[in-house]
Design a protein that fits this description.
Tetracycline Repressor, domain 2; DNA-binding; 68% helix; mainly alpha; homodimer
Chain lengths: 189, 189
DNA sequence: CCATAAAGCTAATGCCATTAGCTTTCGGCG
DNA sequence: CGCCGAAAGCTAATGGCATTAGCTTTATGG
């Protein structure tokens, strides 16, 4: 019988695909093993367990998000950059409904790769806000607001939390426009 | 042997207490049965299963949140009401870390109690925004933004997603102030 | 008092995660 | 060319949780 030829890399990548298909909470070692054509315990040769798998998925997703944000912001500034970054994040979440929630997991303090990815993602937003002349504590606060608003919107949308018939895309655009307004008036308040 | 004297009510209430203690995702029929001094399958006399338990918990939590929001807004208007509602929500989440996530679950279309509670909660926010002269689509969009921002902030905070040393309470206050700014300038944009 | 509905129990099944220990493949080195 | 060791993969066993079936017992109302 030939070997499956797995590596930690391929396992996590397939886990990401699976998570997108069945949902983040239904990502299970059993399902992953079945999809890889391997017995469940074999996965332990590549991953420490289900929690470690989720952790690795978090690193993967956070890295991807950081890249999306960075390239959305590239060559843009101010409101343009803000809109591009917000849309990039929401589209990533729509395209990868299983990966996106993994992004919420806080990096372990001893995982340099995860820490670096998270910092890249936050840094991309932070950089955009410097275009509004925000820095220091104000930039930190504004970054947190951006993350909260966009992440909250994505989460509520995914959970089906918006009941009314009003178009959700429009609401998102309005929210981002309101963020722009808030950032432009941040100091004078 | 005397009977435990459970009812669906007491079971859900104890589930809420347990969820707050051990976390929403660790709310388990096994743990709940142990805490109630009853064998696990006995719970099925009061609840259809673990999913139904989570659903009932969602109704309970949503009802509580609606009450908190309503009484926070009572007797206040404009920025005062906004700040009070935002704080009430965050404090509820801090006080009830296991119940709060249950609040995210979308009501089943055939559960009038859940639907009513969700509508009460959203209605309280909607009412506050009428104080900013927002109505119609604008009020819907502004309500969604409020929910997204506050919910996102709560979620990120609970997940330990804010790494930097900057004081989180301050960031929250700034965010709510920025929302106030955005709402006051909503039309002129 | 006693009959019955409901409360609670034990037993059994199935799924998932984890650990232990065995077998087999593959790549490098004599 | 063959062998040998590390790593890949397997089976078996254990334990936790959810669920269903079917039994026993407690209240309670007639």
């Amino acid at each position: 019988m030939p070997r499956a030829g797995l590596t930690p890399q391929t396992v996590v990548r397939e886990a990401a695909v699976l998570a997108d298909e069945v949902g983040h909470d239904r990502l299970t070692l059993a399902a992953l093993a079945a999809r890889l054509g391997v017995a469940l315990p074999s996965l332990y040769k590549h991953v420490r367990g289900v929690d470690a798998l989720h952790q690795k998925l978090a690193v993967l997703a956070t890295t991807e998000v950081a890249t999306e944000l960075t390239s959305a912001a590239a060559g843009r500034a101010g409101g343009d950059a803000l809109r591009a970054a917000a849309s990039a994040l929401r589209e990533y979440a729509r395209r990868h409904p299983g990966r996106y929630p993994a992004t919420q997991r806080a990096p372990a303090p001893d995982d340099p790769e995860h820490l670096a990815a998270a910092e890249r993602a936050v840094g991309a937003i932070y950089a955009i806000l410097r275009g509004y002349d925000l820095s220091g504590d104000a930039a930190v606060d504004a970054t947190r607001m951006f993350r909260a608003a966009v992440h909250g919107f994505i989460t509520l949308e995914a959970a089906g939390g918006f009941g009314l018939p009003r178009d959700i895309d429009r609401s998102f655009d309005e929210m981002v426009a309101a963020l722009d307004t808030a950032y432009r008036n941040w100091r004078s308040r």
